[in-house]
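ESCALATION

Customer reports they have been waiting on this structure for their group meeting. Please prioritize. Original submission:
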Amino acid sequence: MKANKQEQKKEYRLAETEARFAELIWQREPISSPELVKLCEKEFAWKKSTTYTVLKKLCDRGIFQNNKTEVTSLISKEEFYSHKSRKFVEDSFDGSIPKFLTAFMGGKKLTKQQAQEIKQLIDDFTI
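Update from on-call: job pushed to the front of the queue and completed.
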C-alpha cells in the first residue's frame, strides 16, 4: 500500500524534449553519463550542463538514476507509458474504460480479430 502512495506522488510526465532524452536512455541503458553527454551533444546540440540539468530533473521525478556515472531507469518505458495512459483515462474519463473506448473508437467498427483480442484482455484482467 505504501508503494502505491509513493507512486501516486511521483511526477511521471515528460515534455517533448524530455521524452526524446528518455528514449535515448531507455534504448541504451545502462549508459555512462559522459557517453550520454556526448550523445546529447550530437542529437540535440546540448551543452554538458544542459544534459546534466535534464537528467537531474528526471532523476528527481523517480524515472532515472545516475549512480557513480551510470545512468539507468527506475521505471521501464512500458511502465512509464502505462502509468501515463492510466492517468489520462482517470483525468479525462473519470477512470472509466468504457467511456474512454467509446471516445477512442469514435464510431469506428472493430474487426473480428480486434474484438477477440479485447475480449481476451477483459477475460485476462477480470477479477
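Sent to customer with the following note: The mean pLDDT is 90.
Escalation resolved.
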